[in-house]
Specification:
Helix content is 68%, strand content 0%. By secondary structure, the chain is mainly alpha-helical. It is globular and about 45 Å long.
């Protein structure tokens, strides 16, 4: 069997954990587990999510991952990703750059938990695909 590309490893894993075939309005254990894990990483993260509509947040995360993947594939920043970066900057929600590292570690740990075919290569694929978009998000922290 041929070795899968980074993109194939990521896409296959994301399909396995995201359950895109779920009926509209269904809960997804992967995303619920991810947010529980992420919120538990620090008091700062927990405070940031105190009054958050988590159903809406999951929808935003699904959308954000698509745009992060698009940024990786095309180096294309669209309006959605730019708006999210501005919203997370110091001037708005004040999401410190180091929190993105906690976010990624919580996400990878959740992928490892939920993807029955997870390997270290799978984890590296997730990191490689998401890294450019995360760097973009961090770069907006200090922008006016």
């Amino acid at each position: 069997m041929d070795k899968l590309t980074v993109e194939e490893l990521f896409n296959d894993s994301y399909e396995r954990v995201s359950n895109w075939a779920l009926p509209a309005g269904s809960k997804n254990a992967f995303f619920d587990s991810f947010y529980a894990r992420f919120i538990a990483t620090s008091p700062e993260v927990a405070r940031a999510f105190e009054h958050t509509d988590m159903d809406r947040q999951v929808r935003m995360l699904r959308q954000s991952i698509v745009y992060l993947v698009n940024y990786y594939a095309n180096n294309n920043v669209n309006d959605f990703l730019r708006r999210i970066a501005v919203r997370h900057s110091r001037q708005d929600l004040d999401i410190a750059p180091e929190l993105y590292d906690l976010w990624l570690e919580a996400l990878i740990a959740t992928v490892e938990e939920f993807d029955p075919r997870y390997t270290t290569d799978t984890g590296m694929a997730w990191r490689q695909v998401l890294a450019p978009g995360i760097a973009f998000m961090k770069s907006y922290y200090e922008r006016p």
